[in-house]
Design a protein that fits this description.
The structure holds 2 protein chains of 2 kinds. The two termini of chain A are 43 Å apart. The longest helix of chain A is centred in the N-terminal third of the chain and has 28 residues. By secondary structure, chain A is mainly α. Helix content of chain A is 74%, strand content 1%. Among the domains of chain A are: 37 residues; 44 residues. Chain A has 15 helices and 1 strand. In chain A, helix 9 runs parallel beside helix 12. By secondary structure, chain B is mostly helical. Chain B folds into 2 domains: 93 residues, no CATH class; 153 residues. Chain B has 14 helices and 1 strand; from the N terminus they run H-H-E-H-H-H-H-H-H-H-H-H-H-H-H. In chain B, helix 5 runs antiparallel to helix 6 and helix 11 runs antiparallel to helix 12. The longest helix of chain B is centred in the last third of the chain and has 31 residues. The chains are: A mainly alpha, B mainly alpha. At the A-B interface, helix 1, helix 2, helix 3, helix 12 and helix 13 of A face helix 1, helix 2, strand 1, helix 3 and helix 5 of B.
Chain lengths: 395, 327
């Protein structure tokens, strides 16, 4: 399925692994050199700056190219139907195949840009065709679009191991399920959150199974992205705020007065417990994806609670939350200073510290660009400032 | 770490025995690190708490009084600097590694609260009167001193920002592109001067081997500011023939940055030089195309130019990248 050859990918993996091992000081420079000579880089996969540069230039070429095509077609009066947009998408796809198969571009900026452009053009054409030409209703139109987008994104994920497309395909799939259930009328609207919870949970467990069985390392990152998307979707399916707003919106569009949300207690339980469950399981299984997603979703839970219960004023909340966070983090740092249960506070890899320093200096300047103005910026006390100082980097 | 892969390489004789023992040991004691998570939580906590306290103090400013607040800020700042001076390493012209992350944070906190202190006192008591030049000059000198004394790139960036402020503009790439009104000719010249000044600082730091590693930061700010101000000047003087001088300036500076980047083998600056020069050249081409009239022919020409030139630049970038990697 993947566009690249097996040996090409194998060499790439070996080079990446040895590079990492070299940076952590596990390998000597000579060893890395000899491995590099034996396993030559067959794919073109440059550093981040080249990637950005090539991305920009590919976008320039693509827009100029499609502009030129449009000019040609304008003469022939072919711009009235979405066919030419489909044609453009197909042309970009051919270019993508050529760049990856012939020129061996692998995450070089060129293929990244082309994948995005293909998807974007195809989606535009699809919208045009479905809503302008076929006059489908809203729901059936969206069903058709999401089904086709799911197929396209999944194909692009498998073919080019692209992370963004992995996220895109899952989102398309979830949109499809959502509108399928919604389509079922009043009962559908009522069971919607539960169906979404079941579906996302099912997808997550399928992805976990897939990760265990996965032999193709190059899909790992795509799989991780997919897991993050599904975990967030799973949480949002049962989040009180989301479910309630959705409930009201659905009733509103049906012309009925919004009723009290049934099973409200369940959704409150879900809102509060799921992030904690994620964190607990993340720690237990040493799964970074679960852990970090859980940490982010704690914030979502906090906002949801804050939205319905005004326990205290904003500044008191900030102080209390800040103090609690500091206490928890400090206690955990003390606790894990000596590794326990296979968990440590120490950094496992020190490799990038120096590289980050430079980027970091720029980030500091970005964050504080407003601060040094004694003329403009002193009405607010510096409290926010030194807090930001902590946020801006990992020294 | 992919252990089985490294093991295979070891069996092929590509990894020596001592290295592989290290790998094996690491593989057996692999730990799950919470470093990133806990640090993020800590930052978040500090940020929330300080913001909350800031709001509380601000709301109660009538009962607390300005002097008390100023005193608190001064104490924070002074305490941080005291710690830093006590734990610092001796000054050296070369890179000095920081004693620890705690040190870096306290230094940053001290500098930021110092800035707040100066700002506050100027706002409340007009200590520098309406002499805003002096009000910005003083913190700038302090910041540069701190940056060199403690070898801190973050504070150097703050110092550069303050230098720009003192020269009458606020300079970070974000704002450079967004919030400044470019139609003022004077500001463009100030920017240009600032950019050249920073480029000179980058040149001098490596020439005299004085904090050589600061060169990257100087160069980064200097190159962006100088390039963008010259391109802006081109658009400001678009109608007069003397606009082309600025494009010439872009090419000249591009050449300088290009040579310098090759010397340092830094692909980042190479990319900057190529892209800015390409932008300037495209401005020239578009200018010519517009003069040709607005038939379809010139538009075709422009499209064709963009496709051909961008392909050429891609090939150029790939080649340059290889050249730098080889050197």
């Amino acid at each position: 399925m993947i566009v690249y050859q097996k040996t090409e990918l194998e060499h790439l993996q070996i080079l990446q692994e040895t590079q990492q091992a070299r940076q952590t000081g596990l390998l000597t420079a000579e060893e890395q050199q000899s491995i590099k000579q034996k396993y030559m880089a067959l794919l073109y996969s440059p550093g981040v700056f080249t990637r950005i540069g090539l991305f920009i230039l590919t976008c320039i070429i693509s827009s100029a190219g499609s502009g030129m095509l449009a000019l040609f077609l304008m003469e022939a009066h072919l711009l009235d139907s979405p066919a030419w947009v489909f044609f453009t998408a197909a042309a970009f796809y051919v270019a993508l195949e050529l760049m990856t198969r012939q020129s061996k571009h692998y995450k070089s900026g060129v293929d990244d840009a082309l994948i995005l452009i293909v998807t974007g053009t195809f989606l535009t054409a699809l919208y045009w065709a479905v809503f302008e030409n076929m006059h489908l209703g809203d729901v059936s139109g969206i069903l058709l679009i999401s089904a086709l987008m799911f197929a396209l994104c999944l194909y692009l994920t498998l073919r080019f191991s692209d992370m963004l497309m992995a996220a895109g395909s899952l989102i398309a799939l979830l949109v499809f399920i959502f509108f399928m259930v919604y389509h079922a009328g009043r009962i559908g609207a009522m069971i919607l959150p539960f169906v979404m919870i079941l579906c996302t949970a099912l997808i997550y467990f399928l992805l976990l199974r897939l990760e265990l069985k996965l032999k193709a390392w190059y899909y790992e990152n795509a799989l991780i992205v997919a897991q993050i998307v599904v975990l967030i979707a799973l949480y949002l399916s049962g989040n009180y705020f989301v479910v309630r707003s959705l409930n009201e919106a659905l009733h509103h569009s049906a012309g009925v007065e919004p009723v009290v949300l049934p099973f409200g207690w369940f959704f409150w339980l879900w809102t509060i417990c799921i992030p904690l469950l994620y964190i607990a399981y993340g720690l237990k299984r040493k799964n970074v994806v679960l852990l970090r997603t859980g940490l982010i979703l704690v914030a979502a839970a906090a906002f949801t609670i804050r939205n319905y219960f005004h326990l205290m004023s904003m500044e008191a909340l900030l102080c209390v939350a800040g103090a609690v966070l500091i206490a928890v983090a400090y206690a955990a740092i003390r606790y894990f200073k000596v590794p326990k249960h296979g968990i440590t506070y120490e950094q496992t890899d020190e490799q990038h510290l120096m590289d980050h320093m430079r980027v970091e200096a720029l980030i500091v300047a970005e964050t504080f660009s407003q601060t040094p103005g004694p003329v403009a910026d002193n009405t607010k006390f510096g409290g926010g400032d030194f807090g930001g100082g902590g946020a801006s980097g990992n020294f | 770490m992919n252990f089985s892969l490294l093991k295979r390489l070891h069996q092929q004789g590509l990894i020596s025995v001592p290295s592989f023992e290290k790998i094996e040991q690491k593989h057996q004691n692999s730990l799950f690190s919470l470093h990133w998570e806990l640090k993020t939580l800590l930052y978040l906590g500090v940020m929330l708490l300080s913001t909350g306290l800031g709001i509380v103090i601000y709301q109660n400013i009538d009962t607390i009084g300005h002097q008390v607040i100023l005193l608190i800020i001064a104490l924070i700042s002074g305490g941080c600097f005291f710690y830093c001076f006590k734990n610092r390493k001796p000054f050296s012209r070369a890179l000095v590694k920081s004693p620890g992350s705690m040190f870096d944070y306290l230094l940053l906190l001290g500098s930021l609260s110092f800035l707040t202190f100066v700002g506050y006192i100027q706002y409340q008591y007009q200590i520098f009167g309406t002499n805003y030049g002096l009000a910005t000059f003083f913190p700038m000198v302090v910041l540069f001193f701190l940056a060199y004394e403690f070898d801190h790139l973050g504070i150097l960036s703050l110092g550069i920002t303050n230098l720009a402020l003192w020269m009458g503009v606020s300079v970070t790439p974000k704002q450079l592109l967004m919030s400044i009104n470019y139609n003022s000719q004077q500001i463009v010249y100030v920017y240009l001067l600032l950019g050249l000044l920073l480029l000179a600082a980058a040149f001098l730091s490596s020439r005299y081997d004085f904090k050589k590693h600061f060169g990257f930061t100087y160069m980064h700010f200097g190159a962006h500011v100088a390039f963008i101000s010259m391109l802006c000047a081109y658009f400001i003087y678009y109608d007069s023939g003397y606009a082309f001088l600025f494009l010439l300036g872009v090419f000249g500076l591009g050449y300088y940055v290009y040579q310098d980047a090759l010397k340092r083998s830094s692909f980042y600056f190479l990319l900057l030089a190529v892209l800015y020069a390409y932008f300037a050249f495209s401005c020239l081409v578009v200018n010519v195309v517009i003069r040709l009239g607005n038939d379809e022919g010139p538009i075709f020409l422009a499209f064709f130019y963009f496709i051909a030139s961008a392909v050429a630049i891609i090939i150029l970038l790939i080649r340059l990248n290889k050249k730098i990697k080889a050197s």
